[in-house]
Amino acid sequence: MKDSSRSKKAFINMIAGFASEGVTLICGLILPRIILTTFGSNYNGLTSSINQFISVIALMKSGIGGVTRASLYKPLAECDTYAISAIIGQTEKFMHRIALIFVGFVLAFAAFYPTVLNHDFDFIFSFSLILIISMSTFAQYYFGLSAQMLLTADQRQYITTLFDIAKTIISTIISVIIIKLGFGIHIVKLGSSLVFVLGPIILNMYTKRRYSIIKGASSSKDLIKQRWDAVGHEVANFVNANTDIMILTVFSSLGLISVYTVYNYVIVNIRKVLLNFVSGFGAAFGNMYARKEYDQMRINLGLYELIVFSLTSVIYSVTAAMVTPFALLYTKGVNDVNYSQPLFGVILTLAGAFSCFRLPYQTITTSIGHYKQTRNGAFIEAGINIVLSICFVIKFGLIGVAIGTLASAIFRTVQYSIYLSHNVIKRSMSICILHIVIALSTGCAVYMIAQNYTSKIDTAFEWILGAIATTAIAFAITITVDLVVYNSESRLLISKMANMFKNKRSKIL
Fold first, then answer.
1. Distance of CA 100 to the CA centre of its chain
2. So where are the chain's domains?
3. If 0-12 CB within 10 Å is exposed, 13-18 middle and 19+ buried, where does residue 454 land?
4. Phi and psi based region of residue 80 (left: phi greater than 0; alpha: psi -120 to 50; beta: remaining)
5. 322: closest CA among 386, 267, 399, 241?
6. pLDDT tens-digit series, residues 195-240
7. How far is CA 418 from CA 179, 224, 370, 415, 440, in A?
8. d(Cα 345, Cα 328) in Å, to the nearest integer?
9. Which DSSP category does 336 fall into?
10. How confident is the model over 447-491, as pLDDT tens digits?
């Protein structure tokens, strides 16, 4: 695969990813808003809480998915159809076993969860709603897993993304129609769930035909090694990602969960935007590693760091400044809970920024299959989040769980950077530290400037103008700092991007 081909595929995946996140963001704003105004904060908190717990199926997907992608890079580079088929076959067999674990989890959770709701909803209501929501999640991730991983490893994730866009739009339209017709939350979620059944099946059929997958292909070798280590990573990641909701469910109220969900929705989707870079670049780095292009990896890591840290600084500084005004406008007319939580918003945004600072190091580490070597760090991260969140939630509420999330995110970022610097690409840790200091400094400057006008926002139009102004300021400051501090890297990146658009040979990837 030529470098220019890798660059173009990464760029297409990135654009498709941005389109998907735009659709997801818009649809994700529409439906919860309608649920809030139609059913109230408790219903929004309930469905959000259930979704967080049920999203454990995502760890099944990501755990085996990361190992599958790492295993596929070499046979894809060598066009080895039989090896590709064997890996896909092993992946599907493994997921069949995991499915039994998931079914048991759903039943146990559905039986236990209603007991911690303080009688806000009766047992049958909550139990049946959990089963309906879990059905859609299970279908979405299980049936199309092997197809998604194969397309991602081949840098054709844009195909999967197009399917996701279609499912999101159709699901949102159906849900809104059902709500407007006066049906209850169960029918709303059932209609949404049914949409996510056909997509993965069609995608699976498409990939098996495109890649001429040989049914029954097998190998004496374990082609998806470290799968349990990868699942261990994702179990820890799942616990860490859902610690806040779990602890708020036990120690707080559904109303505060609703507040948390509104703020966290913004943070999570911002991170998804940056994760689009990971999806494209991860396959490219995996391809380089399979071809033993180590010098190329080192050069591209520097460019990748510049991109990720700069975008993180811009996007999250804007988020920190605009998230509370957004929450107040989004929940306007909903007075059962106080949605004005500026300090909570800043701390949660900072935690989201650190979860993105790690992306260059995490991307390369996972793309080369080093799951066992970094597994313990994932468990420690989850442990830090749980312990600190429990310690602080009773006294500080939402801010307490945000502190736990921030502390764990800082630890994991440092851990990934140390591992990569010492074991994969030999270099000084001072490079990572400088990136973090610069990104936080520029972000802080943007936030302080924005405070002059964000407190005066009363309408959606004023919010949009404020967001545009803050974004412009953030880009201006970040680009200026990058050109001064990272002059050679910035010039190289601009040159590579220009060459790519001119269809010349580029070595950005």
1. 25
2. 1-225, 230-459
3. buried
4. beta
5. 267
6. 877 777 888 888 888 888 888 777 655 656 666 676 677 777 777 7
7. 50, 26, 14, 5, 19
8. 12
9. S
10. 999 998 888 888 989 999 999 999 999 999 999 999 999 888 888
